[in-house]
Every structure is written in C-alpha cells, then in structure tokens.
Automatic annotation (TrEMBL), chain A:
<dbReference type="GO" id="GO:0000139">
    <property type="term" value="C:Golgi membrane"/>
</dbReference>
<comment type="function">
    <text>The zeta subunit may be involved in regulating the coat assembly and, hence, the rate of biosynthetic protein transport due to its association-dissociation properties with the coatomer complex.</text>
</comment>
<dbReference type="GO" id="GO:0030126">
    <property type="term" value="C:COPI vesicle coat"/>
</dbReference>
<keyword id="KW-0653">Protein transport</keyword>
<feature type="domain" description="AP complex mu/sigma subunit">
    <location>
        <begin position="1"/>
        <end position="137"/>
    </location>
</feature>
<keyword id="KW-0968">Cytoplasmic vesicle</keyword>
<dbReference type="InterPro" id="IPR039652">
    <property type="entry name" value="Coatomer_zeta"/>
</dbReference>
<dbReference type="GO" id="GO:0006886">
    <property type="term" value="P:intracellular protein transport"/>
</dbReference>
<keyword id="KW-0813">Transport</keyword>
From TrEMBL, chain B:
<dbReference type="Pfam" id="PF06127">
    <property type="entry name" value="Mpo1-like"/>
</dbReference>
<feature type="region of interest" description="Disordered">
    <location>
        <begin position="1"/>
        <end position="47"/>
    </location>
</feature>
<dbReference type="InterPro" id="IPR016024">
    <property type="entry name" value="ARM-type_fold"/>
</dbReference>
<feature type="compositionally biased region" description="Low complexity">
    <location>
        <begin position="1034"/>
        <end position="1049"/>
    </location>
</feature>
<feature type="region of interest" description="Disordered">
    <location>
        <begin position="1026"/>
        <end position="1051"/>
    </location>
</feature>
<feature type="domain" description="SH3">
    <location>
        <begin position="1137"/>
        <end position="1201"/>
    </location>
</feature>
<feature type="compositionally biased region" description="Polar residues">
    <location>
        <begin position="1"/>
        <end position="10"/>
    </location>
</feature>
<feature type="region of interest" description="Disordered">
    <location>
        <begin position="1066"/>
        <end position="1141"/>
    </location>
</feature>
<keyword id="KW-0728">SH3 domain</keyword>
Length: 147, 1308
C-alpha cells in the first residue's frame, strides 16, 4: 500500500499531497515528520539522490528534484525498493513535464499537469503507470498504447 | 504542515498565483485560505465543519484582502490570488461557452490547474463538469473533467477529506445543508455522475475507447462502500473482459508494449489493461470463480501492467484459497506457460506478485497431495532469486525464508532457513539438468527457452540457493543507494530471524560448517528431495558427503563474509540504514559467539546524538524480540540493553527497558538469574553523570548524560531499576519467607547488625547484593529514588525470611530516626539536605512500614510466649485462643498485602512456628487456605476484573511452586496483563504491526500519563477519601516533600491496596485498622468504577486472583505513580468548577460521528473545549438521537455567564486580533463623536448614525477579521459595556496588559 506521496518546496511548504489509507488525524504527523526528515537531510543533496527512513513497519523514500522535495511512504509490498521505483516514476515524469529538474516556479506553473500525472502514476494507493511516455499519453486522454 | 504550509505565512494558492518575479517567501500576503482555519493547521482538516460555516465569508474576505494596501504587491494579470469561489464561478461561465477556443484555453491553463490546489471539489460544480464532459471535445479539458469527477466521487462524506490533500476545503455537504452553495450535495450529483460515466464506460465504440478507459478509471474512485457503483463496475469490467479477455490467439507480449500489430489488437490490449486495473481496485471476491478466471486470463495479457494487476489479484486470492488457484493456474505454471513469461516481464511489481503467489502455493497445506504442483511453484520462486531487480530478488529471498506477512510462525521461519541453506536452484530449462530429470514437473519434450538465460552460463548449473543469496546480498551491500542498503540489511535481519527460529526449534542439527555446494552428480537425489517439498535425509547425507575442507563455501564461511560486509555498512551516514544494520547484527548474533564487537558497535553508535529516540526504542524492542526467539541470550541482551540505559538514557522508554529486564530475568533460568539481576543493578552503580565530559565516548561504562534532560532521564531509569530490584530480587535470589531453604533459628536474631549482614551475604549473595545497593539508594539518590528504594526494601523485607527482614528493619529504623545513618553510609553528607530530626525526609513514608514490621515481630513474640506458656502448662489450645491467633494472622496478612503481594495461602506473618496452629484452626473451621475473602484486593473488586480475563490460564490447586514464585514476583510472562503499555508496544512490534504516524516531538521527557488501572483506582480512592475527609489537608496539591504527595504516589503505586486509610484516615490507628479497613474497603467497593463486586460475600476466590492483580500492577512503572498526583490535582480543578452552560445560537447539523446536531436555542452543558470545538451534553436527545458530542465553538453557543467579569474574559477572547479591536475602537469613537456632536449642536438627528456606525464597524471586524460572531448577539447590554471598557482601556493603553492577564486564565 502506498500510504502517501508528498511534494514540498525547500522551505517545507507542502505543494502536493496524496494520502491513501492514512487516517485524517495522522496526516499532520506524517506531514511534519516528512518535512522534518527533509529539512534534516536534504540540504545539499544531489538531484534524485535517494534517502530512506522507516517508522515501525512503514518505509519512506525521499529525494530532491530541483527545488522540490518528493516523499513517498509505503508499507507491505511497497518497501524501500518498491518505493524507489515509485519515486523514479514520479521524478522522471516531473522532469518530463517541467522539461528539467524544476524550480519551484516551474513546478507551480505546471501544477495541474503534475496532478494529472500523479493521478496516472498512483491510483488508489497502488502504483499504476511507470513509463513516462505512457503517462504523457494518458494525461492527454490518449489510450495507453497508441493506435 | 505546522512547519509546512504556514511557516512562511503563505499558502499553496499564494505560491501558485504569486508573481513569478517576486520570491515566494517575500510574499507575505495572507493567512491560509480559507482564513477561518487560521492558526494551527493541525486542526484544519478536523475543523472542516467550522470551516464550512466560515466559508460563507470567504468571498468577502478575499475581496477585503485585495483591498488591503499592505498586500497590494505588484501583480500581473492572472496572477492574483484566486479564491475557490472565483474558480467555481469561472468554471460555470466557461462551461457554458466551452465551444470557444478562448474559454477552452482559459480552462486548461488557468482554472483547472488552480482548482487542483484544493483538496476537494464542491458538488455544485458537477453539473458544469458533466456538461463539459458531454459537449467538450478538447482532450485536455476532458482529462481534467475526469480528474475532478473522480475527486467528487472519492470525496468521502465525513469531513470533506479526500485522499487528495491540498488546501483544506469545507465539508460541502454541510455547507449545502445551510444552503450556502446552492444546496447541492454529493448525494444529489453522485448518481448523475455515475450514470453518465457508466454509460460512457459501457460504450463499445472503438473511436472513443480512450474516454471509455478514463471513465472506467474515474468510476473506480467511488468509495467501495457504495455498493451500487461497485455492482455496476463489476458488470462493466466483466463485460469488457468477456469480450477481450480471451487470449487464445497468442501474441507477443511483454517488454515492448508498443510493438505488435493491428489496431484491433491494440485496442484490445488497452481495454484489457483498463478492465484488469479496475478489477484490482474492486473488492476481492474470492468465492467467485468468474473473478478468479478473469484474473488468470489476465496473466496472459499483453500489457505488463495488466499482468501485474492480474498476478496481484491472484496472489491475494491464493492466500485464501490456494487449491482452486493452483488448479486454475494449471498449465500456466508449467514450463512455457504464461507464468514463466512473467519472469522476464518488464515490470518489477508483477514479479513481486509472482514471488508471493509462488510462495503461497508452494507452502500451502491444502496442496500437500500435489507435490508436483508445489515444486513447480517453488522452482519458479527460486528462479526469481536470479532476478536483475534487487526488489524482486529480495522478495523471493524473504518468501523463501518464510517471511511473508506479519503472521508467520516460528516453524515456517525455521523451515525457511533450512530451505535457504539446503535447497538448490536448478533451472528446468537448462539442458544438463532437464535431461536427467525424470520428473513429471519437467517436460522433457519442450525445447529449452533460450532467452531465459539471464545469468549466463552459471545459471545452467544447479546453484545452491544460499550461495546465490549471499552473493546477491554482498553485492547489494556494496551499493551506494540507501534504499538498497536498507533493504539488504532488512533481508539479513529476516534471515537472522529465520535462523534463530531454526535454532530455537532445534529442527535440524545445523551444521554450518558443511559444504553447501552440492554437485550436480547428486542431481537425482536432490530432485526427489525437491519434489518431496521438504528436507530429506538423503539430501543431507549427499550434502555432508561433499563436505570439504574449503572453508569458503561453507555456510558459516559465507555468512561470515556477509556479516563482514554488513558491519562495514554501519558506517553509512543514514541513521535509518544504521539502525537496520544494527537490528540485523542483533538478529544474526549467535548465542555462542562473542558479542564484544556488537557491543562496541552499538556503544559507538549510541554516542551519536543524531539518533531519533523512536529508532532507539525500536532497537530496544528488537532486543526484546531477539530474546523471545532465543532465551539463552538473556545475559548478552541485558548487557546490550545496559548500553542503551547508560549511553542514551534520555531517548529510551523506561517501560520497555524494564520489560526487557523482566523477561530476561525470567528467561535467564536458575543459573542466569544472578547475572541478570546484576545487569540491572549495574545501572545503579553508575557514577553520576559528569556534565560536559566528552572523554571516553566509546567506553561502555561511562554515562553519557551531559545535558540536564538526559540526566533526568537517567534518574528515571535509576528509579525504574530500583523498583525493579525491589520487586524481583526475591525471585532472582530464590529467597522467600515462606519457602526458605533453612528456616532461621531465633538465635540469628540475637546477632548484632554487622554479624547479621555477614551471615546474610554468605547465605544468599544475590539478595545481599541487591539489599546493599538498595540501601545505598535509600540514602544517596534523589528524593524520588529514595522513596522507591524504601518501598523496594519493605517489599523485600516482607517477602524474605530472616535475617534479611531484620536487617532491613534495622536499616529502616535508622533511616526513619535519622542521625544514626552515618554508620551505613558516608554518602548522605554530600546530598546537602538537612539531616535533622526528619532524617532523610522519608519518615512519614517509612513509619507505617516499620509499624507493620513492629506488629509482626510483636505478634511473633506473643505467639512464642503463648506457645511456651501452653507447653509449660501442658495445655491444649482452646478454640477461642486459636481464633484469636488466626485473626491476628489474617490481620497481619492484610497489612502486609498493602505493601506488596504475598501468597496468602503460604505466607506466615507469625513465623513458621505458627503454621501448625493456624492449620488446626483452619481444619476445624473448614477455612480454605487459599481464601482471599478478606484480601483487600479482592474486596475492592479490582482483582476480579483481571482475574476473569485470565481465568482460563491456571488451576488454583496445581500451582507449581516455581511458577508461584514467578507470579509472586509478577514475572509470569504469558500472563502479563494486556494493559501494560510497554507490553502492548512489544507485542505490536513483535507482530510487525504499527503504521501509525510517527511522533515528531522526541523531546518529550515527561512521563506520559498512562492511565492504567492503578491510576484510575488510586484516583478513585483519593477522591472518595477527600470527599469524606473534612480535614483541611489536601493530599494532592501539597508540595513534593510533604506527606500528602508521598501518599498519593504510594497509593497509586500500590494500586490495589487501600492505602489511604493507612496513611491518612488513621495515621496511628493500627490496632483498629482491621475495622477501618473493612469500612474503607466497602467504601471503595461502592465508589469504585469497576463494578466487579456483585455480592459482598465472594465464594472462595482462588488465591491467585491477587497475584494476577499484582502482576499487572507490578508492571507499572513506579513513575507512573507520580502521575497520580497530577491526576488528583486535575481532578480537584475539575470538581471545583461549576459546569458551564450554553445555548445554541444557530441550528447545527452534525457532519461526523462524533458531532452533535443542535437546534437554535437549545440549552446544553459544555464539558470541555478541544481546538475550536466544544464537547457538550444535552438534557435530552436531539434530532439525531444523541445526547453528547462535538459542536463548533463559534456561532453555535453562547455562554451563560454569571457576571460581567466572566463575560469580559469571553469578550476579550472574542477580540483577539488587534485589527478587530482597532475597528471597534474606531466604531466606538465615531459613535461617541456623533453623540457629542448631537449634544453640542442640539440636532438629535445626529444621534441616529451613532449606533449604525459603531455596530457596523464592530460587526464588520467580527465577520471578516476575527471570523466569529459578535458577542452582542448573545449579551447586547454586557457587550456594550465591555465595548466601552475596551475603548477606555485602549485609550489608556491598558488593553494589552489586560489581554495578557486574561490570557493566563482559561476563559472557560
């Protein structure tokens, strides 16, 4: 189960969040926990360098892409490595949409599109599409495999 | 978000709409949208109800904001912050003109992206969206339309909370109720949306199949509880699969989705994908053969994602019904079948699901009859070990190890270890093997598949799984990627668990020195072995035959080289990876190996301040789990636990540490008990922390508590250790008064103290050692430690026989008197306390203890005298005398039971000599020895509760003495009450559960208020006591040094005893305590919240009931006792306050389960306030049938204030913002000016604008600045006066002071 996908800017403002199966009262804890993790560790990190954390049986993988920090939280079959796949799908799509590692401004300009991409990548707590070309087609409402 | 969204004072919307040239941080524009949720974002989502009410003002606020000159930062067009309402309006407008290019562009580029910022979409947008859906052709618009329709569908009813996140939006339905958004609720629009999407999803027209897919996807967002939608979805999905699911014409599939053929087949593929994906999101239907059938068809689909979903559906069904899945998979699993193709499918998750599926099927009991099938799946699983993806390889490894989910059993794990070390991977298609294979499993006729040779030549030869796994893990540990390291360490940890399980069960004579590389010469025997699905003797012989001198290929050799790599990983800079590595090392630690290295590693690690406490506690719990798996390691683990206690006392949970001590003590066995106890007492022997000393960071014995916080925590640990020692020393020393190996002669009592100590220590060094340490603590520790030490000493005194009791008696006596203590220790000189009459300040605590001991000794003396008299006179004991004796016996038992648990049946307060007489009396009067009728614990009914829940565990008559000891010490592991919080944590950890959110504040050092039985009961006790006692002494609120709080802490510590009567009601009334006790007992019985006491006379409750109680009690952290004090205080406050009453201002409709609907004007009682909500009680059930629940503070209630002062506090709280007050000031000023003008000019007409100006300004500030309702509505006159008061205060500059003054006092 992919519990959460969260984007924040470098100051810790949350840009996008998608929760699944996280009770409302725990979301705040997750948010602050993740943002704190990022603040502690992501300073000076390379783009797309993967970081890992865990809490009880939940895994967290996070990274930074341009000005944007991306956090993915999962459990069960979504362990660190599966989350690394998820985060790879996300970063490659975001890069594709923003045409390079995004600055915050670019990210926000493409906000709608990124939401749509995320919708295609993570669907009801499960990883769906990983291929960025496929995602690109789908957000234009083209069939996944083009005729 | 506390550090997030609001930290910079900007919201997402501000960020998005801000000018690109302006740095986002400098945009100081606003509070979050909606502004009503200002303040702690923590509560924004929870308060969506309140937000909904405030939403009404949203537009105006946005307008007001735009007007505010401060915020008029340079903004380009289209970059203005947009309110939700503006967006909604534009959607309505643009939807109507969606055929124009301009509006389309506007929608795609501005409106829809910005709308995505909000966490949910208001249902009243649905008609416009549906209109767009029908009429618009533009794909980009349509994609957004599907997105938002899906969001409306997924929006769950409770709090307008969708998984989406984003800026909190109100609960639209609640808003619709008050008709703020046109009265459209989700219930109105959802059927329409579903209808339209369903018809589209069923549309078989090829041209629109992309839209069909999108519609199907959007539909799956509807909540699974909506059975109507689910049924429809099933219909559609099965309908599609009916048409396209058949994969008879075999296509090239897999890696290149794009390649391949005609339009028709592509559309087919797409539909297959969409249908299976939708099916995956639907609830499983394991009993339905059609469901399984479709899923199995899915394995052969061309789309890799479709295959992934199909496999995960199948593997989930397989856990419930392996047989039918295996049957249905049938040929697919055979060589050349679709399942084997999955091995090469370019989709990691698909292969993971495959691994799980194979594991489930190869382990299924139901398939025991079909070893061929099982081995087929096992072989696929083994092949996955060669997978290029680490993730898949690790999953396969975990599956082989028997780690599947958190429910695995030890046998599974042990079998997993054997599998891993013994089994051999043969690729069925490798010619060298398959030619020899005479099994049904391998189809010799099939041509080998050339493309499967992933790992080149090597894979052709049979490979021992273990070697494969080790090689893979080693290379993973060389990776630079943190997730890979973390995962690899986790796998090693799981490996350690399986190995420990194998050792623990002793399933095999594990010979790790054996050579694992079995040559393929033995292929046949190994084949048969594989097909048996279990380890056979033959294989082992075959394996040991080839046992060679080459150490490199032995299991031990491979493991050693792996562990070498693992240890180096400890240098990783990521703490989480390090934590995982340490856990792995703990698990891989063998009981017989030296653990020095591990100890050093941990000690070294703990010196790093970067460790979060949650992580350290997890490691501590790992120690616990390790102990459960291998009790032999108790001492090793205690040593490690000690490092935690000394190195990072501030970060670890004392409860968990104590539990670890306890379980280790029990598990250590008779020989290890002394060592185990020593390990605990080492904590006491620690030198006090030296502030600022940074030397010797790696030294294990040095305490690292350089800051005051950790020093405090260390203090707590010491307390815990002292308490633990008191509770368990007797158990560890096997010394009990009632089980004494050598009943002490009276001669011993004649000795003086020094000789006594010498005699004692020669008899039982463990206990003597513990006593010495406790005595030292009773002198030299902090106040808390000394109290606990005194309690511990009395416990030992009661439980031990002579000479220990006498030794302690002497000591306590000295302690109570003071002045003589110098002969015991020099340390008291340094604690800087007044050593005067009060001695160590423990007098009030110790004197009742001494009195009990006095009583006991006096009664023993009397008994001896009486016996001598009787003997001399050759007199028989009369019944009357016996009765008296028995009563004394019982009375003393009761007294003793107040301090600690003793087995009533065995304990003889009158000394061993009384046994005979007591028994005579009991026999005559048919009193069962185990009668606990007068046991205070039983009488109060508490033990009943615990007793009932534990009843099936044991028989009263067959108490094994050793077990009884364990009980007495509160040690029996299996029976630990589940109310021990630490136990919960351990169990949760052991079960692998726990996904709840992390706590970020690791700074919390105050003991958490664990509301356990004891606390509750203590509270109960104290309450009733205080109510009866008209004495002015209030035990709860006195200073720590006073007796009062000592009582409190003691009484809550001694949970089940009626202590207060001992300490306070009758401070000196020992002679009559029997009477007072029964009185108080009945009092407690009636006032107790636990209605365990049905009838006053209980039928022979078995003796262990008390022990059970004691067990749960003894788990209690001694510190929890101090919680009782604050408890009490809080209670005082609670009772001293009168209930607050309020009246509903408006109708309020409950939006959630815990909320309460109100009608305007209803009277309610306000219980308490939680962030913006009142918990209120009604006099009679309202329209929703509920009596109590939450309602928003604002707008709904007004208080019944008793006087103007109370109202003033409320009034000030309602004018919390400076702008509000300024506007009020302005209003009042202008009104006054009007009045003055009219007075001066004599034109009365000038009076008219006065209230209008005044009130309009004030109300404006309430609605749009403060965001609440003017107090005038409730109390027009008072609020007018308060207005003037505020005016005056502001004029004189005293308002800020007033706010400060009132801020300290709770308004309610």
């Amino acid at each position: 189960m992919l519990l959460a996908v969260l984007f924040s800017n470098s100051e810790g403002n949350i840009l996008v969040e998608r929760f699944h199966g996280v009770p409302a009262e725990e979301r705040l804890h997750w948010r602050s926990f993740l943002v704190k993790l990022g603040a502690d560790n992501l300073k000076g990190a390379k783009n797309e360098e993967l970081f890992v954390a865990s809490h009880k049986s939940v895994y967290i993988v996070y990274t930074i892409l341009g000005d944007v920090c991306i956090y993915v939280v999962g459990k069960d079959e979504y362990d660190e490595l599966a989350l690394a796949e998820v985060i790879f799908a996300i970063t490659s799509t975001v890069k594709d949409v923003c045409s390079k590692p995004p600055t915050e401004r670019v990210f926000l300009d493409k906000y709608g599109k990124i939401c749509l991409c995320l919708d295609e990548i993570v669907w009801k707590g499960m990883l769906e599409n990983t291929d960025k070309d496929r995602v690109k087609r789908l957000i234009r409402l083209k069939p996944p495999t083009d005729v | 978000m506390a550090s997030g969204q609001d930290s910079a004072g900007t919201t997402l919307m501000d960020l998005i709409t801000s000018d690109p040239t302006a740095a986002p941080a400098s945009n100081s524009s606003t509070a979050p949208v909606p502004p009503s949720t200002l303040g702690k974002p923590a509560t924004t989502e929870r308060k969506s109800k309140r937000a909904s009410l405030m939403q009404i003002q949203n537009d105006t606020i946005a307008a007001a904001k735009a007007l505010n000159p401060v915020k008029a930062i340079p903004q380009r067009q289209n970059r203005k912050p947009v309110s939700y309402a503006q967006l909604a309006r534009s959607i309505h407008e643009l939807a109507a003109t969606s055929d124009q290019k301009v509006s389309q562009k506007q929608l795609v580029h501005h409106v829809f992206p910005k709308l995505a910022v909000y966490n949910s979409v208001d249902p009243s947008l649905a008609p416009s969206l549906l209109m767009l859906h029908q009429q618009c052709e533009d794909r980009n618009i349509l994609r957004y339309v599907y997105y938002y329709l899906a969001r409306i569908l997924s929006d769950n009813d409770a709090h307008g909370l969708s998984p989406g996140g984003g800026i909190p939006t109100p609960n639209w339905d609640a808003l619709a109720d008050i008709d703020a958004v046109g009265g459209v609720t989700r219930a109105d629009v959802v059927p329409r949306i579903v209808g339209q999407l369903t018809s589209e999803a069923s549309n078989a027209d090829v041209e629109v199949h992309a839209r069909r897919l999108a519609a199907l996807k959007a539909l799956t967002s509807a909540s699974a509880s909506n059975s109507e939608v689910v049924t429809k979805l099933y219909e559609i999905v099965f309908d599609i699969l009916e048409k396209v699911g058949d994969t008879k014409q075999k296509r090239k599939k897999g890696i290149f989705g794009k390649q391949g053929g005609d339009k028709e087949s592509i559309i087919r593929t797409n539909l297959q994908y969409a249908a299976i994906s939708a099916l995956r999101r639907l609830p499983l239907d394991p009993g339905n053969p059609a469901f399984l059938h479709r899923a199995i068809q899915g394995v052969s689909f061309a789309d890799p994602i479709a295959v992934r979903h199909a496999l995960s559906i199948i593997s989930e069904i397989a856990t419930r019904d392996p047989y039918s899945v295996a049957m249905a998979l049938g040929k697919l699993a055979q060589p050349g079948g679709a399942l084997l193709d999955v091995l090469h499918l370019h989709d990691v998750l698909a292969r993971i699901s495959l691994a799980r599926l194979c594991h489930t099927l190869s382990r299924a009991r139901l398939l025991d009859e079909r070893p061929d099938i099982k081995s087929q799946f096992a072989s696929i699983l083994y092949q996955l070990l060669l997978d290029p993806s680490d993730r898949v390889c690790f999953e396969a490894l975990l599956c082989i190890l028997g780690k599947f989910d958190s429910t695995e059993r030890a046998e599974e794990r042990a079998a997993g270890w054997i599998r891993l070390t013994r089994e051999i991977l043969k690729l069925p298609e490798a010619p060298s093997v398959s030619s020899k294979d005479n099994n049904a499993q391998s189809k010799d006729g099939l041509p080998p598949k050339p493309k499967s040779e992933k790992s080149g030549l090597k894979s052709k030869r049979p490979q021992p799984l273990f070697k494969l796994a080790m090689r893979r893990l080693e290379s993973s540990f060389r990776s630079f990627s943190r997730p890979v390291l973390h995962a690899a360490a986790r796998v090693v940890q799981e490996m350690g668990k399986s190995r420990a399980a194998a050792y623990a069960l002793g399933v095999v004579g594990i010979d790790e020195g054996s050579h694992i590389y079995a040559h393929s010469d033995n292929a046949e025997s190994i084949d048969s072995d594989l097909n048996d699905g279990s380890q056979s003797e033959a294989a082992r012989r075959a394996l040991s035959l080839s046992n060679g001198p080459n150490g490199k290929d032995t299991i031990a050799g491979l493991l050693a080289s792996l562990m070498e790599v693992v240890r180096t990983t400890v240098a990783c800079e990521c703490v989480y990876v390090r934590a995982m590595v340490i856990k792995a090392l703990i698990w891989m630690q063998n009981p017989h190996e030296s653990f020095e290295e591990l100890k050093d590693i941990i000690a070294c690690e703990l010196s790093d301040p970067a460790w979060p406490s949650a992580l350290l506690n997890e490691i501590l719990l790992t120690l616990h789990a390790r102990f459960k798996a291998t009790p032999d390691m108790a001492v090793t683990l205690l040593e490690i636990a000690r490092i935690f206690a000394t190195k990072s006392p501030g970060k670890i949970d004392a409860d968990v540490l104590q539990l670890l001590w306890k379980t280790c003590l029990v598990g250590a066995g008779p020989d290890g008990k002394h060592t185990a106890l020593e390990a605990v007492t080492i904590v006491l022997d620690l030198p006090p922390p030296q502030p600022g000393s940074m030397s010797g960071l790696t030294s294990v014995d040095r305490v690292s508590a350089s800051d005051p916080k950790s020093a405090m925590a260390l203090q707590r640990l010491v307390q815990a250790a002292v308490w633990f020692l008191g509770e368990n020393a007797n158990y560890a020393a096997s010394e009990y008064a009632w089980e004494s190996a050598t009943p002490p002669g009276t001669a011993l009592m004649m000795l003086d103290a020094d000789k006594m100590v010498a005699a004692a220590s020669s008899r039982n060094p463990t206990l003597a050692g513990a006593l010495t340490r406790l005595q030292r603590c009773a002198f030299s520790g902090s106040w808390e430690v000394r109290i606990v030490a005194a309690q511990a000493l009395i416990t030992i005194a009661v439980r031990s026989g002579e000479p220990y009791r006498l030794q302690i008696y002497e000591f306590l006596h000295a302690l109570a008197q003071g002045g003589v203590q110098s002969q015991f220790s020099e340390l008291q000189l340094s604690n800087g306390e007044d050593q005067g009459a009060s001695g160590t300040g423990l007098g009030s605590l110790i004197s009742p203890m001494l009195k009990v001991l006095d009583e006991m000794y006096r009664a023993q003396d009397d008994l001896i005298r009486d016996m001598r008299n009787h003997d001399n006179n050759k007199q028989e004991w009369t019944d009357e005398e016996l009765k008296q004796l028995y009563e004394t016996h019982e009375k003393l038992l009761d007294l003793v039971s107040l301090f600690c648990f003793v087995p009533r049946a065995k304990y003889l307060p009158l000394g061993p000599t009384s046994a005979k007489l007591i028994n005579i009396y009991r026999d005559r009067h048919n009193i069962s020895a185990s009668s606990g009728l007068n046991d205070p614990a039983v009488a109060t009914g508490i033990s009943d509760l615990v007793y009932e829940s534990n009843m099936p565990h044991k028989e009263p008559d067959s108490i094994d003495p050793e077990l009884a000891m364990a009980w007495a010490a509160g040690l029996d592991d299996g029976l630990l009450g589940s109310n021990a919080p630490a136990m919960d944590r351990v169990n949760e950890f052991l079960a692998g559960a726990g996904t709840d959110a992390p706590d970020v504040e690791d700074e919390n050092i105050t003991s958490r208020p664990s509301v356990t039985y004891n606390d509750m009961w203590a509270k109960e006790l104290l309450e009733s006591y205080e109510m009866e006692e008209d004495d002015a002494r209030s035990s709860g609120t006195s200073s720590p040094e006073s007796t009062g709080s000592v009582e409190t802490s003691i009484s809550s510590h001694f949970g089940g005893m009626n202590y207060p009567s001992l300490f306070s009601s009758r401070p000196s009334g020992y002679g009559v305590s029997q009477q007072s006790e029964s009185k108080s007992a009945s009092r407690f019985g009636s006032s107790s919240a636990f209605e365990g006491r049905g009838s006053p006379v209980r039928e022979e409750p078995p003796s262990y009931s008390a022990s059970v109680m004691q067990r749960s009690e003894s788990f209690e952290n001694p510190l929890a006792g101090y919680g009782g004090q604050s408890f009490n205080q809080r209670d005082d406050e609670g009772t001293s306050e009168n209930p607050q009453f309020g009246k509903a201002l408006y109708d309020f409709t409950a939006g959630g389960d815990d909320e309460l609907s109100l009608d305007a004007g209803e009277e309610v009682e306000i219980d308490y306030e939680v962030d913006g909500w009142y918990y209120v009680k009604k006099k009679r059930p309202g329209r929703d049938g509920k009596m109590a629940g939450l309602v928003p503070v604002l707008s709904c209630l007004m208080m019944n204030f008793k006087n103007m002062d109370e109202f003033w506090a409320f009034y000030v709280s309602q004018h919390s913002k400076a702008s509000t007050r300024r506007l009020h000031f302005l209003g009042t000023l202008s009104s006054l000016l009007c009045v003055v003008a009219s007075l001066v000019s004599g034109r009365w007409i000038l009076l008219l604008p006065a209230p209008i100006i005044g009130y309009s300004l004030a109300w404006y500030s309430h609605f749009f600045v403060e965001g609440n309702v003017p107090a005038t509505f409730g109390h027009p006159f008072w609020s007018f006066l308060c207005d003037l008061k505020m005016f005056a205060l502001m004029l004189s500059g005293g308002m800020d002071k007033e706010i400060k003054r009132l801020g300290k006092r709770p308004v309610l």
